[in-house]
Design a protein that fits this description.
Distance between the termini: 75 Å
Strand content: 15-25%
Protein name: Canalicular multispecific organic anion transporter 2
Main location: membrane
Low-confidence stretches: none
Subcellular location: Membrane
Membrane topology: Multi-pass membrane protein
Number of strands: 10
Oligomer: single chain
Structural class: alpha/beta
Mean pLDDT: 92
Keywords: ATP-binding, Membrane, Nucleotide-binding, Transmembrane, Transmembrane helix, Transport
Largest sheet: 6 strands, mixed
Amino acid sequence: SFDVNVMSFNTSLSMVIKMWTYTETSIGAIARVRDFENNTKSEVKPIESNTPPPGWPTSGAIEMRNFAASYTESSDLVVQGINLTIQPGEKLGICGRSGSGKSSLLATLLHLLEFREGSITIDGVDVAYIPRDVLRGSLNTIPQEPYWMNTETVRFNLYPWPGDTVNDATLIDVLRKCHIWDTINEKGGLDVKMAADFLSHGQRQLFCLARSLLRKSKVVVLDEVSASVDIQTDSLIQAVIRQDLRDCTIISVAHRLNTIVDFDRIVVLDEGRIIECDAPQILLSRPDSRFKELYNL
């Protein structure tokens, strides 16, 4: 009896210590959130109050005029002197050496940087005056690092937007297009919760691509979507992009330049400036082309 009581006491003590540790961790997390809320300046500006037309963007025309941006309102410019007109439905590839400003230029389309000079318009609407959450919700973005909520189901993670629903047949169809429905079906289908290791890395990117097919937008932003996947998965991703997003304006930062060599135009950046912009075959035909140099590496 004494041994049983000692074992019971040890178990209880262990549980108390564990719960105390969890409590300390949680209090620390709450303190950090409160500190962030109290000391971090909101990115929202009073001028960002215009509401774009219903269904915007409707065609996907983008224009940057003498545009410059930085990470904060007082820091050095990371993109500058950008003049670029992108036609509706055009496929534009962005490349350059590491640190050239590729991802920064892409981030400006989502107003993740502070606008310092010039303007960006999408279908004639100046995005500097649109609430940032509205802007980001109106564009279709596929990041380099795929994501989902580990506490939610496949159904929720595939279509998390409130306000309307999508039937099962449509959800399964996009998963089939992205070649991951069989895997998900074997694991329990649309209503199974997605743990962190639910899919392999390549399948995670295909899942995010499937999500983007449900997100109807005329502007698609791709940030090195195939940089960390194998060649086979990359081929699947590129095939889906060209087939199912062919009517959209696509702006893609590419790590593997062969994925954008068939695009309409290529922009090459250096130190946040455009140094080349033309059709890829034209750039490849020039002996002194920076794109040709990068392509042949």
